[in-house]
Amino acid sequence: MPTTDLSFLALHKDGTLLGDLLADLLTEHSDWRVGAAVRLPRHSLAYCVDKLDTWESDTDYLLADPETRLMVLPYRNRGRGRDDYAYLQESDPAANRSRFVDRVLRAQAGARRDVLISPWLIHGLTGRTHELNVTVDFARRTLDHSLAEDRQVLVGVEATEAIFADKTSLDAMLDEIVELDDAPPVYLRMATSAALGGRKQYENAAALSGLRAAVEALVENDHVVMLPQSGLAGWLMLGFGAHSFGAGIPATLQRCPLPVARSGGGGGQPALQWYFHPQLIGFVRADELGDLERVDGAESCDCPYCDATPPAPGPAFDRTAADKHFLRWCVALAEEIRQAPDRAEAVQQRVEAAARHWQTVQEAGVVLDPRSQPSHLATWTQVVA
């Protein structure tokens, strides 16, 4: 179950990458804790059930995330699964609450899940408390639903970074959550609006400090806190009581951007070759790895994906291996904190070590692309202090 102990939550996009990684992890480290989630709106029910069945023996838990955050979008932008799931067809979830909650839960039960996530709306979008009030009402209806009788319920909650950055607004949100009976686990997202270049890590100090305060307050009130779609910023929160953090491929699954209606299409530029650098707790361009490896104190990665296919820029770059390398490191970082006698101290020490290594890199005269520079480390050091 997701609330048994600390874990990493891998978020599926498409293809076989995640399934292959989970199988590799089970062979390499069967004691590491990892869960996985499909996002229901993104795929047909048959596809989701097939993926979940395939991963059953390789994971500690599986979730079917209803992503009701997408209800803010027009119907046509709610995902490829909108014809399969009745809840995505609702015009006004707040006006049809019982029906909406029932349909959201039945969609997850239809994917054969024994953990249900209550629906939610994004608090902070309108400047009013309407979305928060509806979200809490959804949670109460979920907890009272017949499908919840023999299943664990996670309470879905999401708020904008502005809510987390403002103490008064954050306290008001937390007050509503802790009023729920029996302190149910909270499935918490922080929606971000800031554009980040490439794979830059999130570094809004006020919002991250607010996220830390939220996690600490919820844990103090006996709630388990899960942070799906939070990326490595969510990993920071393991030191303050969070039970899991989630990430996936691509970058939009390593943070939680606000939903945007899109008309389709995209740029024609080739994708940059990003590689996760564990010592800097961030991504660098693959063509910068050679210079970084020559810096004093540089550590080589011994994960199976680097051993089998050492990272090489250009035509030889193995994007699949790079993606698996990142997700495996997410699991390894979670495991490192899970095993630590003092989880807060373990997070703090790794962040401080990364900041020291970045200083060494700069002193060695290595120049990185601005999108590779780990500017987040200064903020993270303050947040975990």
Compact description:
With 385 residues, the protein is α/β, with parallel strands linked by helices. The chain has 2 domains: 7-253, Alpha-Beta Barrel (TIM Barrel); 274-384, no CATH class.
What does this structure look like?
This protein is of the alpha/beta class and 385 residues long. The protein has two domains: 7-253, TIM Barrel (Alpha-Beta Barrel), CATH 3.20.20.105; 274-384, no CATH class. 39% of the residues lie in helices and 14% in strands. The protein has helices at residues 17-28, 45-55, 97-110, 130-143, 161-165, 167-178, 205-220, 231-236, 289-293, 304-308, 319-339, 343-363, 376-384; strands at residues 7-11, 34-39, 61-65, 115-117, 122-123, 152-160, 186-191, 225-227, 244-248, 274-277, 282-285. The strands form two sheets. Strands 1, 2, 3, 4, 5, 6, 7, 8 and 9 form a nine-stranded parallel β-sheet that branches. Helix 11 packs across helix 12 (343-363) and helix 12 (343-363) runs antiparallel to helix 13 (376-384). The longest helix is centred in the last third of the chain and has 21 residues, at 319-339. The two termini are 31 Å apart. The model has no long low-confidence stretch (mean pLDDT 95).
